[in-house]
């Protein structure tokens, strides 16, 4: 009896009170949780119903604006599921597959909700090693294998880039096994993605430019840098997602094309699609786009595209971009309006209302000294000034990125057609489109040996200094009034005077005379840049020899 007495509480009332409190907390907690779950379920049903109504709208392959409303609604549903882990995200995958039949969660290594689909997948995911969060993906075919090998060598052996590199291709006919082996041996952390094992070719018909957005979608890296095989990096892109302000803030960074104008069809098309999407132009378009002001018919150079796919809105925008590049859609509209895939990346985000960023400058130009004594064509300086006045009120950049200092090019120089893109500070070129050849269309001209470059003024600052005439504001530059058009032309001259010019219809004359047209605005590339360029040239020559020995065609 004494033993049993030791097991009984000395003060039973305290224990009864504690038990009552615990029971009350238990009831309140689970009652609140039940109410919360009921609210989540009601919200989920509402979103599914709203999405069903949006999906019910008939559309054609040319209705990009209407399609954007469907993808935006789908993005909202996915966000809701990710914010509420109690929901089964298999339902998101089912709806995505309904809108995009070629999207198969079983074949993709990454999508934002992949590790949240069920308790089983969570256990499996916790047992798997975590892969790299940032990586490079390149779309490569046999005809660009050498350029891809050049780029791999530049990244690994010259710049010390540690990011993994995935090479996407469309079956053995696109990139032969022996070519893949050649590329695999160039450096460590090289992997391959056969897109035919991920996407049904009968549905997407991948070829040419259309391959690239699907390579971005298939990339196993949440933060992906999509790179053309003939792009050239002049510095290490390892920290690009952390160092480039626009990319850090929005998760998407696009680079500008040349500032050239060849008509208004594209501007009209975008206006119609924005109207169909029920959206006003973004702050970027209104404040920082020469394209939207109709001073340029080109906007993006898609040889490098940076996207953080862990952000659901951006992942859905990538899906939308892929839809634009499926065969039916690209043949009906995308490739008829734009040059290949290049504008579809930013257009998808714009139509969906997803934040994105562009580099602050349009594409820069590069030139090199000529030691061959080639006679250059000369411009009539007075005639040039008459047609392209340099007005004293043009905004200037700060000292860190001014393009009006340093040594101008010598008298015998020639420009190349490469589009160069500055680092985050506008100090020097970060990368260029067009391989390291002086002219990739005629490799007999040899390797580029750049000495100078010309970066225009920041577009946002220029457009702020030269706003559209009042009658043009909000019109995207589309007006009929003759007086307003004259005012627009005056503003246009002032704006274009701050940017590099490209003689789009006369390339031979362009590369021989471009440095003279804006002579004071060119600046000399640094000794450090020139040293890296020299090492890149050496790496390129080694690749050329290795390719000749191992591949031989």
Automatic annotation (TrEMBL):
<keyword id="KW-0328">Glycosyltransferase</keyword>
<dbReference type="InterPro" id="IPR029044">
    <property type="entry name" value="Nucleotide-diphossugar_trans"/>
</dbReference>
<dbReference type="Pfam" id="PF11051">
    <property type="entry name" value="Mannosyl_trans3"/>
</dbReference>
<keyword id="KW-0808">Transferase</keyword>
<dbReference type="GO" id="GO:0000033">
    <property type="term" value="F:alpha-1,3-mannosyltransferase activity"/>
</dbReference>
<feature type="region of interest" description="Disordered">
    <location>
        <begin position="386"/>
        <end position="415"/>
    </location>
</feature>
<keyword id="KW-0472">Membrane</keyword>
<protein>
    <recommendedName>
        <fullName>Glycosyltransferase family 71 protein</fullName>
    </recommendedName>
</protein>
<dbReference type="InterPro" id="IPR022751">
    <property type="entry name" value="Alpha_mannosyltransferase"/>
</dbReference>
<dbReference type="GO" id="GO:0016020">
    <property type="term" value="C:membrane"/>
</dbReference>
<keyword id="KW-0812">Transmembrane</keyword>
<comment type="similarity">
    <text>Belongs to the MNN1/MNT family.</text>
</comment>
<dbReference type="GO" id="GO:0006493">
    <property type="term" value="P:protein O-linked glycosylation"/>
</dbReference>
<dbReference type="GO" id="GO:0005794">
    <property type="term" value="C:Golgi apparatus"/>
</dbReference>
<keyword id="KW-0735">Signal-anchor</keyword>
<keyword id="KW-1133">Transmembrane helix</keyword>
<keyword id="KW-0325">Glycoprotein</keyword>
């Amino acid at each position: 009896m004494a033993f049993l007495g030791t097991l009984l509480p000395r003060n039973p009332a305290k224990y009864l009170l504690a038990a009552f409190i615990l029971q009350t907390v238990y009831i309140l907690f689970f009652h609140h949780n039940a109410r919360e779950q009921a609210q989540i379920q009601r919200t989920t049903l509402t979103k599914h119903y709203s999405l069903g109504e949006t999906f019910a709208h008939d559309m054609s392959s040319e209705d990009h604006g209407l399609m954007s409303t469907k993808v935006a609604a789908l993005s909202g549903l996915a966000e809701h599921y990710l914010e509420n882990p109690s929901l089964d995200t298999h339902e998101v995958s089912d709806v995505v597959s309904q809108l995009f039949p070629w999207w198969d969660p079983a074949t993709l290594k990454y999508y934002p909700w992949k590790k949240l689909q069920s308790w089983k997948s969570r256990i499996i995911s916790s047992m798997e090693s975590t892969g790299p969060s940032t990586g490079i993906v390149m779309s490569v075919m046999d005809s660009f294998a050498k350029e891809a090998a050049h780029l791999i060598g530049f990244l690994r052996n010259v710049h010390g880039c540690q990011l993994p590199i995935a090479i996407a291709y469309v079956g053995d006919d696109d990139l032969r096994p022996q070519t893949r082996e050649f590329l695999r041996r160039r450096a460590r952390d090289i992997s391959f993605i056969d897109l035919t094992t991920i996407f049904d070719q009968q549905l997407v018909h991948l070829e040419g430019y259309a391959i690239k957005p699907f390579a971005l979608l298939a990339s196993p890296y949440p933060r992906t840098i999509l790179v053309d095989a003939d792009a050239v990096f002049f510095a290490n892109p390892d920290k690009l997602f952390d160092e480039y302000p626009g990319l850090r803030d929005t998760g998407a960074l696009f680079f500008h094309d040349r500032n050239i104008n060849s008509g208004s069809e594209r501007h009209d098309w975008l206006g119609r699609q924005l109207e169909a999407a029920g959206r006003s132009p973004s702050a970027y378009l209104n404040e920082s786009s020469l394209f939207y002001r109709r001073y340029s018919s080109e906007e993006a150079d898609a040889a490098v595209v940076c996207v953080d796919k862990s952000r659901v809105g951006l992942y859905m925008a990538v899906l939308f971009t892929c839809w634009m590049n499926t065969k039916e859609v690209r043949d009906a509209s995308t490739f008829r309006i734009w040059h290949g895939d290049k504008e579809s990346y930013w257009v998808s985000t714009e139509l969906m209302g997803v934040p994105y960023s562009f580099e602050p400058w349009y594409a820069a130009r590069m030139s090199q000294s000529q030691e061959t004594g080639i006679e250059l064509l000369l411009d009539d300086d007075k005639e040039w000034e008459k047609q392209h006045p340099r007005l004293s009120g043009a905004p200037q950049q700060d000292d860190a990125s001014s393009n009006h200092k340093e040594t101008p090019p010598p008298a015998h120089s020639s420009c190349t057609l490469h589009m160069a893109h500055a680092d985050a500070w506008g100090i020097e070129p970060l990368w260029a489109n067009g391989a390291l050849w002086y002219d990739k269309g005629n490799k007999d001209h040899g390797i580029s040996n750049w000495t100078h470059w010309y970066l225009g003024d920041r577009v946002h600052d220029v457009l702020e200094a030269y706003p559209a005439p009042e009658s043009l504001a909000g019109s995207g530059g589309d007006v009929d009034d003759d007086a307003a058009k004259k005012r627009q032309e005056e503003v246009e001259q002032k704006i274009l005077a701050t940017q590099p010019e490209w003689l789009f219809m006369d390339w031979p004359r362009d590369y021989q005379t471009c440095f003279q047209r804006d002579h004071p605005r060119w600046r000399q590339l640094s000794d450090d840049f020139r040293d890296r360029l020299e090492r890149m040239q050496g790496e390129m020559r080694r690749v050329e020899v290795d390719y000749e020995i191992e591949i031989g065609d």
